[in-house]
């Protein structure tokens, strides 16, 4: 490889890393709504499981999952 190809390759890599990802608004809204919806559902089920006897480990796991999905939905709506 000659030096011109190496320089061109490094310029292309630099340009690719500095470009931002752009999504359309409906894609962001639907992705965020799905994440928030799954998170809400998981948190509600975790609260229901917590009230029953002997399901505390499942309730905690489902609650953590709900928080993670809700956080991913908010991230998708506002930051990505």
Question: Topology, pairings included?
Answer:
Elements (H helix, E strand, L loop, with lengths): L2 H16 L6 H27 L4 H23 L2
Structural class: mainly alpha
Give the number of DSSP strands: 0
Q: The biggest beta sheet, please?
A: none
CA-based gyration radius? 21 Å
Sum up the overall morphology in one term.
elongated
Helix content: over 70%
Strand proportion, as a percent range, falls in under 5%
Give unreliable regions as ranges: none
Helix-strand pattern? HHH
Distance between the termini: 37 Å
Mean of residue pLDDT values: 83
Number of helical stretches of at least 4 residues: 3
Structure overview:
There is one protein chain. The protein starts with a helix and ends with a helix. The chain has 80 residues and is mainly alpha-helical. It has helices at residues 3-18, 25-51, 56-78. It is built from 3 helices and no strands. Helix 2 (25-51) runs antiparallel to helix 3.
Summarize the structure.
The protein has 80 residues and is mainly α. The protein contains 3 helices and no strands.
């Amino acid at each position: 490889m000659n030096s011109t190809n190496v320089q061109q390759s490094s310029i292309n890599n630099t340009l690719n890393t500095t470009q931002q990802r752009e999504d359309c608004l409906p894609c962001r809204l639907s992705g965020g709504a799905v994440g928030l919806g799954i998170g809400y559902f998981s948190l509600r089920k975790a609260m229901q499981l917590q009230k029953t006897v002997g399901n505390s480990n499942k309730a905690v796991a489902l609650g953590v999952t709900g928080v993670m999905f809700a956080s991913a939905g908010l991230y998708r709506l506002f930051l990505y």
